[in-house]
């Protein structure tokens, strides 16, 4: 059961065009579930600074590696958050950054592997103090 | 002038996977906010980051307005040889900042 305030936030912000943008980035390819692990806290008090990490299960050899890691959100004004372009020299597919979240929403991480396949993971984050659209 | 903080190990064993962490001072004004008069604040963000290891690009990042102020980025690389890591941030309004760090690989 979500707290009442989280319910209010769910209704407040409309969805952005995330599915369309994901389709543009992946070229409409099939996105498989698994191999990707999106690490983001399930409940954040301050949407202005949310630690976010992505790891992908990959041997990271010269012939089998992760080439791209993208992160998207469904309610920020723009769906794209960040895109990492890495390669076999990374040794390990593990990235981290800090993002803003405009509302209680789903976050999606998508990894592109060297064989052209796409893998994803998503997380639902409850945000108490929203970022992005506040007035000063 | 931007201030950047780098966390790169000074020494590493050959073949070791090292974690690189970077932080740069920047407002990352997302372009969707308004001031108290209702006037939109123009977008001012860092859009691109790249890291080169002895001249070879090992990581490139595209940043969007959803990234928090003072962007923090963390990634990994294999310590292959002694040399220099070059970091470059580019963004709106001609923002361009570079930093270097040296690493000794034994």
Structural notes for this entry:
The complex is a heterodimer of chains A (136) and B (106). Chain A is mainly beta. Chain A has one domain: SoxY domain (Immunoglobulin-like), CATH 2.60.40. Chain A is 13% helix and 44% strand. Chain A contains 2 helices and 9 strands. In chain A, strands 1, 3, 5, 6, 8 and 9 form a 6-stranded mixed sheet that branches. A 3-stranded antiparallel sheet of chain A has the order 2-4-7, with no helix packed on it. In chain A, strand 8 and strand 9 form a beta hairpin. The model of chain A has no long low-confidence stretch (mean pLDDT 90). The relative contact order of chain B is 0.32. Chain B has a single domain, classed as Sandwich (Immunoglobulin-like). Chain B is mostly beta strands and 106 residues long. The N and C termini of chain B lie far apart (35 Å). In chain B, a hairpin with a 4-residue loop joins strand 7 (83-91) and strand 8. Chain B has strands spanning 4-7, 11-12, 17-24, 46-53, 56-63, 72-78, 83-91, 96-105. Chain B contains no helices and 8 strands. The mean pLDDT of chain B is 95. Chains A and B meet through strand 6 and strand 7 of A and strand 3, strand 5 and strand 6 of B.
What layout of secondary structure does this protein have?
The complex is a heterodimer of chains A (136) and B (106).
Chain A: H1 4-12, H2 18-26, E1 31-33, E2 36-39, E3 43-46, E4 50-56, E5 66-73, E6 80-85, E7 93-99, E8 105-113, E9 118-129
Parallel strand pairs in A: 1-9, 3-9
Antiparallel strand pairs in A: 2-4, 4-7, 5-6, 5-8, 8-9
Chain B: E1 4-7, E2 11-12, E3 17-24, E4 46-53, E5 56-63, E6 72-78, E7 83-91, E8 96-105
Parallel strand pairs in B: 2-8
Antiparallel strand pairs in B: 1-3, 3-6, 4-5, 4-7, 7-8
């Amino acid at each position: 059961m979500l707290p009442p305030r989280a319910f209010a936030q769910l209704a407040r912000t409309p969805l952005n065009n995330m599915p369309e943008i994901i389709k543009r980035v992946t070229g409409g390819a099939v996105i498989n579930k698994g191999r990707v692990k999106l690490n983001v806290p399930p409940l954040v008090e301050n949407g202005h600074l949310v630690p976010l990490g992505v790891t992908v299960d990959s041997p990271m050899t010269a012939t089998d590696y992760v080439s791209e890691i993208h992160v998207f959100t469904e309610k920020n004004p723009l769906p794209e958050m960040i895109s990492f372009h890495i390669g076999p020299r990374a040794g390990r597919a593990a990235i981290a950054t800090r993002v803003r979240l405009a509302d209680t929403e789903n976050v999606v991480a998508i990894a592109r592997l060297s064989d052209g396949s796409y893998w994803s993971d998503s997380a639902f984050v409850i945000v108490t103090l929203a970022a992005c659209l506040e007035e000063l | 002038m931007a201030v950047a903080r780098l966390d790169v190990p000074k020494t590493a064993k050959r073949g070791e996977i090292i974690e690189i962490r970077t932080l740069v001072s920047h407002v990352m004004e997302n372009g969707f906010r308004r001031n108290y008069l209702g006037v939109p604040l123009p977008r001012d963000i860092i859009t691109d980051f790249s890291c080169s290891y002895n001249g070879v690009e090992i990581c490139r990042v595209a940043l969007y307005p959803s990234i928090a102020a003072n962007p923090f980025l963390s990634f990994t690389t294999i310590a292959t040889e002694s040399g220099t890591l070059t970091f470059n941030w580019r963004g709106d309004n001609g923002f361009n900042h570079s930093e270097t760090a040296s690493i000794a690989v034994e």
